[in-house]
Design goal:
Oligomer: single chain
Radius of gyration: 23 Å
Strand order of the largest sheet: 1-2
Strand content: under 5%
Number of helices: 19
Distance between the termini: 29 Å
Order of helices and strands: HHHHHHEHHEHHHHHHHHHHH
Helix content: over 70%
Length: about 375
């Protein structure tokens, strides 16, 4: 990025699109004064501002990345010149130090009336960060997603709103925390990922939308399997199974199947996958399960094939990963029918062996 600053790159891209500052502030749904000061270098851009203008100008993450580098450089300068901040930096890590110096709005400043139009930019920023994560990985993006969540908390704490807007804000912040957790996990920052998922769980229990709670639990289940704790993974999956419905109920079965495979429990793993396939056969469109749209017969084949490899069943793995649809139907017939009790879930036994599916890892 050389000597490029956030302000200069923002100005270059804005002028290239033929937009005035006022027009860009309206397009990105950001405060005009904040935007003007950020472009002129008089104010550090927040994560949310950087994400919003990056989306509006279709900058493919460049503005987010430049803003992140500038905040990190500012944090490093402040830390090395102040003994107290240096100790704080060492104790809490780079992420927390950068966040504390990120130029977010003072948490005591009231923001007035909050409506649905204030919630929408949070969801757009999260959608954009997810797309960037799929393209570039999450290592340098999860803090931006956390910034989106913090902006939502600010609106929640200092704004005035209806019950409907409050519920929408809580859900949007929960989705931002889930995005931050996925990006942190993708970047190998497992402590941050777990923290974000647990925060999403807390938010989910304050709303009437179970999808965020299910999403957080199944992601915690996957992370536990990945980190070599399949027993814990099964417990998370069971908790998700108790509240999931529609298409999202398939995902806890997938998580159970991979956890059981990691602990060498062949029958339990295959039984969980069989329940997942039966559920998929009867699943319809589910507006709450937007995050499990990846589920398809082919995806289940890939996940079950990976599980079979962990269990040492290489012939079955090869068939599942490369076989035709006819072969897949034969395999399902060999598994036999699944009873109503099995579909609803049974008390599993648990084991403990490390494992994780790269195929599933990219699911947000």
């Amino acid at each position: 990025m050389g000597d490029t600053t956030f302000g200069s790159e923002l100005r270059r891209r804005r002028l290239a699109r033929g937009l005035s500052l006022r027009q860009l502030s309206e397009l990105a749904h950001v405060d005009f004064t904040h935007l003007s000061r950020a472009e002129n270098g008089r104010r550090r851009p927040t994560e949310l501002l950087a994400a919003a203008v990056d989306i509006a100008l279709e900058a493919d993450g460049e503005l987010i990345a430049i803003a992140h580098v500038q905040r990190a450089a500012t944090a490093a300068t402040a830390v090395t010149s102040d003994p107290v901040r240096r100790r704080e930096f060492v104790a809490t890590g780079v992420a927390a130090a950068v966040a504390s110096l990120s130029g977010m709005r003072d948490c005591t400043i009231r923001v007035g009336r909050v409506g649905g139009s204030d919630v929408e930019p949070l969801d757009r920023a999260v959608a954009r960060l997810r797309a960037l994560g799929h393209q570039h990985g999450g290592a340098n993006l999860w803090q931006a997603a956390s910034g989106v969540a913090r902006e939502g908390y600010h609106l929640l704490e200092q704004g005035t709103y209806t019950d409907e807007v409050e519920a929408a804000l809580l859900a949007a912040i929960g989705r931002a925390q889930m995005c931050a957790g996925w990006l942190a996990f993708d970047g190998g920052n497992h402590d941050a990922a777990r923290s974000c998922y647990n925060e999403a769980l807390s938010l989910a229990r304050q709303t009437t939308d179970p999808s965020i709670e299910v999403h957080a639990l199944v992601n915690l289940a996957f992370q536990s399997t990945f980190l070599g704790m399949p027993r814990q993974a099964v417990r998370y999956a069971e908790a998700a199974e108790r509240i999931a419905f529609g298409k999202m109920a398939i995902v806890p079965q997938i998580r159970r199947a991979t956890a059981y495979a990691s602990s060498g429990e062949r029958a339990e793993s295959r039984s969980a996958m069989s329940r997942a396939r039966t559920m998929l056969d009867h699943a319809g469109d589910d507006e709450h399960g937007y995050w499990c749209s990846f589920i398809s017969p082919e995806e289940l084949d890939g996940i079950e094939g990976t599980a079979a490899m962990r269990l040492g069943d290489m012939r079955r793995a090869e068939t599942l990963l490369t076989g035709s649809s006819g072969t897949r139907r034969r395999l399902r017939a060999e598994q036999g029918p699944v009873s109503r009790t099995a579909c609803e879930g049974s008390s599993p036994s648990r084991g403990g062996r490390r494992g994780g599916s790269e195929r599933e890892r990219r699911v947000g």
